[in-house]
Design a protein that fits this description.
Blueprint: E1 21-25, H1 30-43, H2 56-66, E2 70-73, H3 82-94, E3 100-102, H4 113-122, E4 127-130, H5 132-135, H6 142-153, E5 157-160, H7 176-185, E6 191-193, H8 202-209, E7 215-217, H9 222-225, H10 229-237, E8 242-243, H11 253-262, H12 268-277
Parallel strand pairs: 1-2, 2-3, 4-5, 5-6, 6-7, 7-8
Helix pairs in contact: 2-11, 7-8, 8-10
The structure holds zinc ion (ZN).
């Protein structure tokens, strides 16, 4: 039996239940963080700024500045075999602060995916991040479904990159259509689509996913969401399914917190659902 990671106890946080949870952040091991950040920025020709240095400590600094109580870190296994390396890293860092919660990742072509998912579960990891574009498989592929099944059977949350990715022009592996197909098979499962499900394609998400009862985060699309009538309708129909997420370091946590806090379109109850209540239907704190 693997040693369990410490459980975050929301009751012990100064804000009680009124806490702010950022469901979508990225950090890297200290020795590769600088290079990882540079590579991501280069991949989209410099059209992106990093708001932390990509390290564990810099995420904590950002959380302090923004008033974020807990962050979920979403790593991605970009090759078969990478999942166990990520798990080793997660175990090393996860005991350093109860304010940072790690998901795991596994590549769908990993021949040891069953073992990898069970090890994650035994270590206390509550969810798995997939980025089908970076991982090279269509989100709705039959092969990947076996991996989703295994993780869902372990009561884990599946967290997907949703929609277009500017670093992968022409790739349709994370299209809204593919998630509509996936959700037909996995209706009602604990599934989160990042970036509002479609990276700004709000009309299409509303049409194809609006009634699917999957979760959405607002990472990278919070700005466009405020101006789009389809986004407003999607939120109206699914306010119990939206999670606050920044995509830090690619968005500034403080700015995102302020947008939600200062919003006149959202009621205090909706803000509470977005900041902390909805995500607690997916993970234990
Ligand atoms: Zn992200």
């Amino acid at each position: 039996m693997e040693p369990m990671l410490p459980e975050c106890t929301i009751r012990h946080l100064p804000g009680g239940v009124n806490v702010i949870i950022d469901a979508h952040t990225h950090i890297y091991p200290d020795i590769v963080a600088q290079k990882a950040i540079r590579t991501v920025i280069a991949n989209i020709n410099g059209r992106l700024n990093a708001h932390t240095t990509g390290t564990f400590d810099s995420l904590l600094d950002s959380m302090d500045a923004a008033g974020v109580d807990l962050s979920i870190v979403l790593p991605v296994a970009t090759s078969p075999g990478h999942g166990s390396g990520i798990l080793g890293w997660v175990k090393e860092y996860a005991t350093s602060s109860p304010r940072i919660i790690f998901f795991g990742s596994v590549h769908p072509e990993d021949p040891d995916y069953v073992c990898c998912i069970r090890q994650m579960k035994e270590s206390g990891i509550q969810g798995i991040k997939f980025h089908p574009g970076y991982q090279g498989f269509p989100a709705d592929s039959k092969e990947a479904s076996r991996v989703y099944d295994e993780a869902l059977n372990q009561d884990m949350t599946l967290y997907f990159h949703g929609g277009y990715d500017p670093s992968l022009p022409g790739c349709d592996y994370t299209s809204v259509e593919r998630y509509a197909a996936l959700l037909k098979d996995f209706n009602g499962s604990k599934i989160v689509l990042a970036h509002g499900g479609g990276y700004g394609e709000w009309g299409k998400v509303l049409d194809l996913l609006g009634d699917k009862k999957c979760y959405y985060d607002v990472a990278f699309v919070l700005e466009s969401m405020q101006r789009d009538e389809h986004a407003a309708e999607l939120f109206k129909q699914n306010e119990d399914y939206f999670l606050f997420g920044s995509d830090s370091p690619w968005r500034d946590q403080k700015k995102y917190v302020e947008i939600v806090r200062n919003s006149t379109a959202l009621t205090p109850e909706q803000k509470e659902k977005l900041f902390c209540k909805n995500v607690q239907k997916l993970i234990r704190l």
